[in-house]
Amino acid sequence: MSIITYKDVEILRNEVVVLKHVDLAVDPGQFVYLIGKVGSGKSSLMKSMYAEVPLSGGEADVLGYDLTSIKRKDIPFLRRKIGIVFQDFQLLTDRPVFDNLKFVLEATGWKNRDEMEQRIDEVLREVGMLTKAYKMPHELSGGEQQRVVIARALLNKPDLILADEPTGNLDPATSEQIVEGLHQISSRGTAVVMATHNLQIVQRYPGRVVRCEDKQVIE
Hints:
By secondary structure, the chain is of the alpha/beta class. It has 7 helices and 10 strands. Helix 4 (about 115-125) packs across helix 5 and helix 5 (about 140-155) packs parallel to helix 6 (about 170-185).
């Protein structure tokens, strides 16, 4: 049973067609690279998956939600099942790592302090950042910040992680560590869709490759 199913979908940005006739299915635990030039629609495709960019036409289902008819009040519930990793981290700069993660848990309805602390410890351990829980974001390297972002994406045990150019601001060695970590997450059953223009990484850590080109999505 696929967790993402797009059939003949059209994606618009500011009333301009970015992608058309999109057919795509992603299964649990799959690792999918989205490649293509800047402006080819990779980010728009990803943003459509968490209902940030609207779809016009076609059928689209993500994690059981019909994206062509999703109600505004249901969007937060869809997003709770998706972990999002941004290129520019988007950490809250005024608080340490632990409080960045606690903020997300509180915002998504967690109440029990002990359970929150336990979950934060689990995800930080998973990305090798447990010892940095009380550091401020500016005290961390780019790679460390991105690991925290991945930990944040894992908090609610998502079925899907969307990573938009997660290595875009990192050096090659750090990039490889981040991608290796994402592959490990996918091997444990969480689907990962990663947009990248780094073809060396795609060759080094093979996965399914989907290309955005000429307003089409080509496998």
